[in-house]
Amino acid sequence: MSAPQNPFPANRHLLNRRNFLGQTVSGLSSIAFSAMLAEQHLLAAEKEPRLTVGGKAPIRPEIDPGKPFAPRDAHFPAAAKNVIVIFCSGACSHLDTFDYKPSLVKMHGKPMPGGDKLVTFQGQQGNLTQSPWKFKPRGESGKMISDLVPHLGELADDICFLHSIKGKTNTHGPGENYMSTGFTLDGFPSMGAWTSYALGSENQDLPSYVAIPDPRGTPQASVNNWGPGFLPAAFQGTDFNAAQPIRNLDRPVSIDAKTDRATRSFLQRLNEQHLARFPGDSELAARISSYELAARMQLSVPEISDLSQESDSILHMYGIDDSENQLKAAYAKNCLLARRLIEKGVRFVQLFNGAYQTGGEGVSNWDGHKKIKDQYSIHGPVLDQPTAALIKDLKQRGLLEDTLVVWCTEFGRMPTFQKGASGRDHNPEGFTCWLAGAGVKAPFTYGATDEFGYKAVDNVVTVHDFHATILHLLGLDHERLTFYHNGLERRLTDVEGTVVKEILA
């Protein structure tokens, strides 16, 4: 009878104690040696430059952990220094605001050609339906804009309209993510975080990036809209509005100002001493920087939020004194706060109009499924005068020359009414966004949806193209602005995006 075979022939050396200990020692030594080489950047792989998907060398900003918001140079001369994004949550209908379709009027009440049994987000569609609001030519350009937004209509000659935006999703949360971060999933950096990461800020006493939620609350995707994703946490947007100041900023009432200053001074000396002992501790430097910014904000934020410093004429222009429409007055205060932040050098401001559903569908935002006439008659006046006043105010102060104003929403709406309802369903196939201010042509119209406003058909602009253009106006190459994460050179525009050069001034 033959001897039994070793069931582990490949691992037989492990059965020998001397070989096992020898392998262990050499293995640990190899790990230690590799770590030493990595610390000194002597590994061969690290000498090979990582390239973006386009084959270009990445440009990552040099960031001092102790001064993460220090101003940094753009990649090339920039048209815009600052950005204000006005985000209409709930998917504002392009067909009832800025995208005039005569064929929709002509075919009102008839089936959409080729739309037999068309099923969208909430179900089957009814017939083509013209807007309940009349469109009129505005400004010297004669741009057709709805009576729903007459004050914005007065600014037609200052606006660059993009009527051929195309999205990827017809669901609100992912749609907000896509417009704010370039991805439908959670966990990716917002456009403002990328901008703050790349350029820092001109004001070291205020956050580089501020998100201003609607008076009714936060949008459906909430902090994802202004989150840092995998970027350093310092680049997350700081959220507050005119009615709700930054939380936990004031000192406790039990501590007087003198004691508070003395405590901060003592803590600062301890931190400086500790940092001197461990100069390479970037996490400590970042933590100290965040505490110091918070201390400076105790003085700067109350001042910037104090709208009583503004003249009565400015308050009236924004509609802050509108006693009959308290929601409009509250949103108007947020618009004025946005101008004051830009005036003080804040790099990126994200201003929300509309919030996550409270009180029923279409009550708190632009999600007009059931009774669009009733719902938009509330939302239109809230948006219109204050937003128009913000642009006028920026222009009269000379701030619009360096500030890019972006108006956007997560997707558009259908040219039909939903079957059995008097509102429009979700439509990511074609919708409108617009730009005003630094670096864009105005008046100007680019791209188009089809004759009914259903699909983008002429000069289609993806959201990645939209983001690439915004970064370009800030002097940033969207293909080279990256952050190395999980083995990939991540960027705002993923692996896509083309700058829409036709709209650049």
TrEMBL record:
Pfam families: DUF1501. This is DUF1501 domain-containing protein. It comes from the Bacteria. Gene3D superfamilies: Alkaline Phosphatase, subunit A.
